């Protein structure tokens, strides 16, 4: 089999974790598999890089030098442990320091200009993966597993939406096969940088935070791999975020439809877009634990498997705002909804959920809080005449809201689920601000105040007895 194995930040973030990585890859090779490894930055590095860039823009150049020292230490420690005094270690550390020079120079430029563009942010954000792929390749190679590092800018072609670029399938397939095919045929392990890609013109882009999962499935599809294994720090996709619900437990099987809802609505264990390339070609994806490699984790495929539960998991996505457009002028007038959403679309903002009461007096929808001001400005601009005539009220919004999503294909055609859901929140005295149900019936989404989010997730988890395997 050809297996794409993606290792997340914590899985490559320490000497102990890296020991497990070596063992996992060695076992796969021993079992006769071809392996492409996709790596994230060492844990914490992407945050250090991005934070330093923002600090530089705000006038503080110190953050970059401090980040540099911290990042250098992480790589120096890992290479010292695995590569000792070898020439390979020198080679990796020369590369690390060259990239860190580049990082400091970029931050200096941002500091001088006082401006940080999305394009520059992607170059800086992607440095963590570029530091790490050669390190992991050298560690594997030193352990007798012939490996070579490859920058994904040579493989993944994207549009120029910096910070959340969209891959171009055909160009990516041609490049990936041309570059990685010969390595695999030669029995080598390719170690690819996650998170980044490049436009047709060769400008670096990123696939959004947590994007290395997406890199793995994009490459899996491009190479027509047999499976994608996402190695992380939990035993698979769980019934809820284990940091919020301590007795959450792993789900052994999920369908593509179910995981799409979960990852879209905040289950951080998989990037929200990552399942798409896999789903297109029925490529199985496994979520596995680097720190417990024998645990079967979660298998994700096209079919739905009934585990005897209507609801399989509950997630929450935070830092959202609920916008309401309302007024007597909404009733029966065609086009208000269309104009509302065109005005939002102009700002390039993602609308996560929409809900309209049947009286047509109001539409409300949810957007990420950082986008709130530009969305409200655009709406007031578009609807100014109606607001002036009092056909519409001023646009209202509520910050500090979250969407809870209750997911499971077993809810389809199963009456009583929403009743139980609402009463579990009612008992906790949690106010539901808005509700939407996708027509798939795989997902019911609710908006509640951010302060109620964790309590609500716990109450729903308990109501549907998700703690019981
Ligand atoms: P990686 O660095 O390996 O990509 P992430 O931190 O991005 O790892 O994702 C794994 C984390 O996602 C887990 O440690 C867990 O805290 C969090 N998480 C949130 N919701 C879920 C869920 N439903 N199932 C599993 N993990 C979840
Ligand atoms: N290093 C990137 C991030 O922290 C990508 C990833 O880890 O998947 O967002
Ligand atoms: Mg992740």
Kindly provide the radius of gyration, computed on alpha-carbon positions and rounded to a whole number of angstroms. 24 Å
* Attached small molecules: adenosine-5'-diphosphate, aspartic acid, magnesium ion
Annotation, overall tally of beta strands: 16
Q: How does CATH name the architecture of the largest domain?
A: 3-Layer(aba) Sandwich
Which homologous superfamily in CATH is the superfamily of the largest domain? Acetylglutamate kinase-like
Give the overall pLDDT as a whole number: 95
Main sheet, how many strands, which sense, barrel?
Answer: 8 strands, mixed
Overall shape? globular
Kindly identify the CATH topology of the largest domain.
Carbamate kinase
Helix content range of the residues, please? 40-55%
* Percentage of residues in DSSP E strands: 15-25%
Q: Number of DSSP helices?
A: 15
Structure class: alpha/beta
């Amino acid at each position: 089999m050809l297996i794409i194995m993606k290792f997340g930040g914590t899985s490559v973030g320490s000497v102990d974790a890296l020991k497990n990585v070596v063992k996992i890859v060695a076992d796969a090779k021993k079992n006769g598999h071809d392996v492409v490894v996709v790596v994230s930055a060492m844990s914490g590095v992407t945050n250090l890089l991005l934070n330093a860039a923002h600090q530089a823009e705000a006038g503080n150049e110190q953050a970059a030098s401090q980040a540099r020292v911290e990042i250098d230490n992480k790589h120096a420690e890992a290479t010292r442990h695995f590569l000792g005094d070898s020439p390979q270690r020198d080679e990796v550390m020369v590369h690390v320091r060259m990239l860190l020079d580049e990082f400091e120079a970029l931050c200096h430029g941002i500091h001088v200009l006082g401006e940080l563009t999305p394009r520059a942010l992607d170059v800086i954000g992607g440095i963590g993966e570029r530091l790490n792929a050669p390190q992991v390749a050298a560690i594997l190679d030193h352990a007798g597993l012939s490996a070579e590092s490859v920058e994904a800018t040579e493989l993944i072609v994207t549009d120029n939406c910096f910070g959340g670029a969209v891959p171009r399938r055909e160009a990516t397939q041609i490049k990936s096969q041309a570059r990685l095919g010969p390595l695999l045929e030669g029995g080598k392990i390719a170690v690819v940088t996650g998170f980044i890609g490049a436009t047709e013109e060769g400008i670096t882009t990123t696939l959004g935070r947590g994007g290395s999962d997406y890199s793995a499935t994009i490459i899996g599809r491009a190479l027509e791999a047999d499976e994608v294994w996402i190695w992380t720090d939990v035993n698979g996709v769980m019934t809820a975020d284990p940091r919020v619900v301590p007795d959450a437990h792993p789900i052994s099987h999920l369908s593509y439809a179910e995981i799409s809802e979960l990852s879209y609505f905040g289950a951080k264990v998989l990037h929200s877009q990552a399942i798409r390339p896999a789903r297109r070609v029925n490529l199985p994806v496994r979520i596995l634990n680097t720190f417990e490699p024998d645990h079967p984790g979660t298998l994700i495929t096209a079919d739905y498997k009934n585990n005897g539960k209507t609801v399989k998991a509950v997630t929450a996505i935070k830092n959202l705002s609920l916008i309401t457009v309302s007024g007597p002028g909404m009733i029966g007038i065609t086009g208000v909804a269309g104009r509302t959403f065109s005005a939002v679309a102009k700002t390039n903002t993602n609308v996560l959920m929409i809900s309209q009461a049947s009286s047509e007096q109001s539409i409300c929808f949810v957007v990420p809080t950082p986008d709130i001001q530009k969305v409200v400005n655009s709406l007031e601009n578009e609807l100014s005449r109606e607001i002036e005539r009092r056909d519409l009220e001023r646009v209202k919004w509520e910050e500090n809201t979250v969407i809870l999503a209750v997911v499971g294909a077993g809810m389809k055609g199963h009456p009583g689920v929403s009743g139980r859901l609402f009463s579990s929140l009612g008992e906790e005295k949690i106010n539901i601000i808005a509700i939407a149900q996708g027509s798939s019936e795989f997902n019911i989404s609710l908006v509640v105040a951010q302060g109620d989010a964790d309590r609500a997730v716990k109450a729903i988890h308990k109501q549907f007895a998700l703690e019981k395997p």
